[in-house]
Amino acid sequence: MLDSHWRDVAVIAELRAERTAPPRSAGMTMVIDTGLGVAATADILEVAGDYIDLWKLSFGTSVFVRPAVLERKLELINARKILTCPGGTLFEAAILQHHCRVYTTRAVEVGFTAVEISDGTIELPAFRRQRVIDCARNAGLVVVTEVGKKDPNAQPPIAQLAEQALRDLEWGAHWVIVEGRESGIGVGVYNEQGALDAQALETFARILGNKIDRLIWEAPQKHQQTALIERFGINVGLGNVAPEHVLALESLRLGLRFETLKPIADKLQQSGLWAPDQIEADVIGEAVGEAEGGRANPMHVSPIYLTPTPPRKGQG
Fold first, then answer.
1. Is 280 left (phi over 0), alpha (psi -120 to 50) or beta?
2. Is the separation of the CB atoms in 201 and 161 below 8 Å?
3. Strand order, beta sheet including 142-147
4. Tens digit of pLDDT for each residue in 202-241?
5. H or E stretch covering 241
């Protein structure tokens, strides 16, 4: 249940009921952390930790954080039962020089609970990709893979990415990230202007079928998040979200921003459930929401719309 002073007042009840709760099987929010300190991490967790599912220390940034600082930071995040992983580029740099067991063992020792396996920069044949997934699982890590290339001039066919995502899930990956980079421009399902390719989304949906909820779409821009929510619903997995934007994204999911509230308001008005020109009369008690302690909550208010009557002669 949403723990908020506003839960019965400003949140659309149907959306609140539909939103998955952690630990989520769909609707993941993955933050991209490029260098927050311990204090800043603690602040984000205090305010928005309930809405973060995967915390990625992107690129190779964790390499440059002093061990004691990195360990304290991971302890804070892990205590909230949020998955933590180093970025896929760090994996790719390591696998060029070492066996996967070296990398996964070090990730566990440092305090990470997940690992991202990708080939956004390097080439990783399918048989090696499968072996690395097994290697990470054997180390006790949650496996998150990524499909897609980072070079805008070397983009694989969308169907190939979707088929790779499906294979990764069959091989034991728990989640699959769809490459979008931190810009959301010119890679994956985004064109050079950052707009979503609707046909690409349908290709993923067709190939993944009921496993589509296991995808985390890197979507750093609000209009991209909006389009994905419109296509796949409020429990679509979204990634590369700046830590300070987590609550803004949750508001977007639950119809509390223009882009997602406007369609709700229009639909209610068309159905007659919302009438802007009518007066409200309040019905208190059991009309709306949950009962608390077996008693109706007086904060649950359901509006009934009354047709305005003309003022009597001599009034107003």
1. beta
2. no
3. 83-86, 54-57, 29-33, 237-241, 215-218, 175-178, 142-147, 114-117
4. 999 999 999 999 999 999 999 999 999 999 999 999 999 9
5. strand 237-241
